[in-house]
Write a structure and sequence with these properties.
Mean pLDDT: 93
Low-confidence stretches: none
Distance between the termini: 30 Å
CATH architecture of the largest domain: 4-Layer Sandwich
CATH topology of the largest domain: Glutamine Phosphoribosylpyrophosphate, subunit 1, domain 1
CATH superfamily of the largest domain: Aminohydrolase, N-terminal nucleophile (Ntn) domain
Oligomer: single chain
Helix content: 25-40%
Structural class: alpha/beta
Bound molecules: 6-O-phosphono-alpha-D-glucopyranose
C-alpha cells in the first residue's frame, strides 16, 4: 500500500510529482522519493525518511530539474523505513517505483547475486530495477520490452513504474493487483496509484487493468498486454472532487476500509500459503510447537478480539494450549512466562503502550515473542523475535475494521504453520483449509455486495438505548467486537456476551428497547444459539440475527436477518463481523456522528 506518481510533459516534473504525492500520503508515509530525468537525459534520485515534508526540504536544498519523473510515498512491506529502502530504486540508469509485493524475490535475488549484482536495499522492488537493467544490457530494444522481460520472471502483486536514461522521454508502467491510473493532459501525461494525485491537472483518466502495460510520452499513451498485443480503452471523465477521491468515492474512510477487506486479506495471505506442501510460511520465522508449554496472545481493543479468535485457531489446529490476555492486565500481574512460552503480541499500529510493555515483560522473563503488526518496523516488531506483518495498508478510521480481519488472516497462517509442525494437522486437512482460506476474499466481496449499506436496519434501531450481542465459539469474540464497534462510533451502550452466559445476567436487560444481535451461522453450536434466540423472543426482545445464506428457519424467527456466505466454523469470524461493522457504521451515520474520528478515542494509544 504505497503511493505512486509519474509525469511526462513540457513542465518541470518535481512540483507536479510532489503535489501528487501529497494527495496520496494517506496511502502510506514512512518515506518518500523522486527520480527525474534531467534535460541531458541524466537520472537523479532524491529520497528521504519520514513524511513528505522531509523530502520537500531536501528538494529545496537540492532541486531536481527535468520534465520526466516518477515519485513514491512508501508504506513498508519488505525492509524497515530507511533512505536505502525508500523508492525510487536505482540500478545503473534505471529507476523503479513499486506498490505491492514480489513473492519470489528471494529466488530472484539469489539468481541476480550469482551473476555478480549487488543490492543496496532490503526491498523486493530493487530486484525489478536489476531485472530491467539486465534486460536492457542484454539488448532489449525498448524500455517496454525490457519491462516485459523483467515481468516474465516476477510473481506477485505490483504496480510498477520505470524510467531509464537510455529512453529519456518516456515512462513505462505495469499493473497486476495494485492500482494504477493514467491521466491524460494536453501535451502531457500523468500517472498515479489513485485519482486524487492528478485531479488538479486532468479529469480524463484510464484505469489500467490486470496484466496491462502502459507507455507514456508527452504526446500520448500506448497500452498493451504482457504478451505485447495492443490494448485499446477509452478514457473516463472523473466528476468527483479530490477529497471524495481520496476516499475512493466513499463518504468515510471507515466505509472504504470495510470494503477494502477482501484485498487486505488477499495481500496478507499472498505468498505465504502453499497448496503443494499444504503449509503456511512466516517469512523466515519458524515456530516449533513441540517444546512449547503454551501460547499467550496479548493485545488491546479490537486486536484483543482477534486474539480471542486466534486461540480457537491455534488450539484446534496445533493443539497447543492458548491463553488470551489484555496487554494492560498481563503486564501487571506478575505473569508466569519462561522459555517454553510463546507470546504473540497483536497490534495494528505496533506501538500501543500496554502491548509494547507486555512484550518487554515477557522477553525480560525469557519468553519467546512473535508480533503481528500492520506497521513495518514499528516499536513492537522491533522488540520481538519475529513479526508476521498484515498487509492491510494504512487504516485511517479510528474504529478498526480491515486490520482486524487481516489479523485473523495472520493468525490463521500461524495456526496452520504450527499445526503442520506439531503433527496435529495432516496434509489433506491443511490443504482443505488453505483452499478455503484462499477463497475468503471472494466470499467477503460477495457478502459486502449482498449486505448493502444496511441503512434500513440503521433507521430501525438507531434510537435504541442499549444493544446486546450474543455468540458462541468463534463467534463469541465477534459478539464482543460487534459491541465494541457500535460503542466506539454510535455511542450506544452495547455489551457482547457468550450466548450461554445470557441466562446468568444479561437476560434481565431484555425488553423491546434493547435489540439483541444473535450470531447464528450454521455450525456445531447452531441448535444451542437458536435456543438462546428463542429465549430472547419469549421476553419481547427484538432479534437481529446473523446467519448462513438461505437459512429460512432463522429468517422466520428474527425481526431482521443479515445473511453471510457459508464457511467452516473456524473461519466464520471473517464473515460474521462484516454485517456488524456495516450496521455500526450505518447507525453512527444515521445519528450524525463523526465516524472516522469518534469522540474521546485515538487511533494509536501510546500512553497508559
Ligand atoms: C485503540 C484503537 C483501536 C485499537 C486499539 C489497539 O483503542 O482505537 O481501534 O484496536 O487501540 O490498537 P493496536 O494498534 O495495538 O491494534
Amino acid at each position: 500500500m504505497c503511493g505512486i506518481v509519474g509525469y511526462v510533459g513540457p513542465r518541470q516534473a518535481t512540483p507536479i510529482l510532489v503535489g501528487g504525492l501529497r494527495r496520496l500520503e494517506y496511502r502510506g508515509y514512512d518515506s518518500a522519493g523522486l527520480a527525474v530525468l534531467d534535460p541531458t537525459g541524466h537520472l537523479e534520485v532524491s529520497r528521504s525518511v519520514g513524511k513528505l515534508s522531509a523530502l520537500e526540504q531536501l528538494l529545496e536544498r537540492q532541486p531536481l530539474l527535468g520534465r520526466v519523473g516518477i515519485g513514491h510515498t512508501r508504506w513498508a512491506t519488505h525492509g524497515r523505513p530507511s533512505e536505502a529502502n525508500a523508492h525510487p530504486h536505482r540500478v545503473g540508469g534505471v529507476a523503479v517505483v513499486h506498490n505491492g509485493i514480489i513473492e519470489n524475490y528471494l529466488d530472484l535475488k539469489r539468481r541476480l547475486q550469482a551473476t555478480g549484482r549487488e543490492f543496496s536495499s532490503e526491498t523486493d522492488t530493487e530486484i525489478v530495477a536489476h531485472l530491467v537493467d539486465e534486460a536492457l544490457n542484454a539488448g532489449a530494444p525498448t524500455l517496454v520490452e525490457a519491462l516485459r522481460v523483467a515481468l516474465s520472471q516476477v510473481v506477485g502483486a505490483y504496480a510498477l513504474v520505470v524510467i531509464s536514461e537510455r529512453h529519456p522521454d518516456e515512462i513505462v508502467a505495469a499493473k497486476n493487483a495494485s492500482p494504477l491510473v493514467i491521466g491524460i493532459g494536453v501535451g502531457e501525461m500523468f500517472l498515479a496509484s489513485d485519482v486524487p494525485a492528478m485531479l488538479e491537472h486532468t479529469r480524463d483518466v484510464i484505469f489500467l487493468e490486470e496484466g496491462e502495460i502502459a507507455e507514456l510520452r508527452a504526446t500520448g499513451v500506448k497500452l498493451s498486454n504482457l504478451a505485447g498485443e495492443p490494448v485499446t480503452r477509452a478514457s473516463r471523465r472523473i466528476t468527483w472532487d479530490a477529497v471524495q477521491a481520496e476516499k475512493n468515492g466513499y463518504p468515510h474512510f471507515m466505509l472504504k476500509e470495510i470494503h477494502e477487506q477482501p484485498r487486505a486479506i488477499a495481500d496478507t495471505l499472498r505468498g505465504r500459503l502453499r497448496l503443494d506442501t499444504a503449509d503456511a510460511y512466516l517469512e523466515g520465522y519458524e515456530i516449533d510447537p513441540r517444546p512449547l508449554r503454551r501460547v499467550v496472545l496479548v493485545a488491546c481493543g479490537t486486536s484483543y478480539h482477534a486474539g480471542l479468535v486466534g486461540k480457537f485457531m491455534i488450539e484446534s489446529l496445533a493443539r497447543v494450549p492458548c491463553e488470551v490476555d489484555l496487554a494492560s492486565e498481563f503486564r501487571y500481574r506478575d505473569p508466569v512466562v519462561g522459555p517454553n512460552d510463546l507470546l504473540i503480541a497483536i497490534s495494528q499500529s505496533g506501538e500501543t503502550a500496554d502491548t509494547l510493555a507486555a512484550v518487554k515483560e515477557a522477553r525480560a522473563r525469557g519468553g519467546r515473542v512473535l508480533a503481528i503488526s500492520n506497521v513495518v518496523d514499528s516499536a513492537i516488531p522491533r522488540v520481538s523475535e519475529g513479526t508476521v506483518y498484515t498487509h492491510a495498508g494504512p487504516e485511517i478510521g479510528v474504529a478498526s475494521t480491515k486490520c482486524f480481519t487481516a489479523q485473523l488472516a495472520a493468525l490463521a497462517l500461524i495456526a496452520i504453520h504450527m499445526g503442520r509442525r506439531s503433527g496435529h494437522l495432516a496434509a489433506p486437512e491443511a490443504a482443505k483449509l488453505i483452499a478455503e482460506l484462499a477463497a475468503i476474499p471472494t466470499k467477503m466481496t460477495t457478502a459486502l455486495t449482498t449486505l448493502g449499506d444496511l441503512a434500513d436496519v440503521a433507521a430501525r434501531y438507531r434510537d435504541a438505548r442499549d444493544f446486546l450481542f450474543l455468540g458462541r465459539g468463534t463467534n463469541f469474540p465477534i459478539a464482543l467486537e460487534g459491541a465494541l464497534k457500535l460503542k466506539e462510533i454510535s455511542y450506544i451502550h452495547a455489551e457482547g456476551y457468550a450466548a450461554g452466559e445470557m441466562k446468568h445476567g444479561p437476560i434481565a436487560l431484555v425488553d423491546d428497547g434493547v435489540p439483541v444481535v444473535v450470531l447464528a451461522p450454521r455450525g456445531p453450536s447452531y441448535e444451542k444459539i437458536i435456543s438462546n434466540l428463542v429465549q430472547v423472543r419469549a421476553r419481547n426482545g427484538r432479534v437481529i440475527a446473523v446467519g448462513t445464506e438461505g437459512d429460512q428457519q432463522l429468517a422466520e424467527m428474527a425481526e431482521c436477518v443479515l445473511f453471510v456466505p457459508d464457511v467452516s466454523p473456524l473461519l466464520q469470524p471473517f464473515m460474521t463481523v462484516l454485517p456488524l461493522q456495516i450496521m455500526s457504521y450505518a447507525i453512527a451515520v444515521a445519528r450524525g456522528n463523526d465516524v472516522d474520528q469518534p469522540r474521546n478515542l485515538a487511533k494509536s494509544v501510546t500512553v497508559e
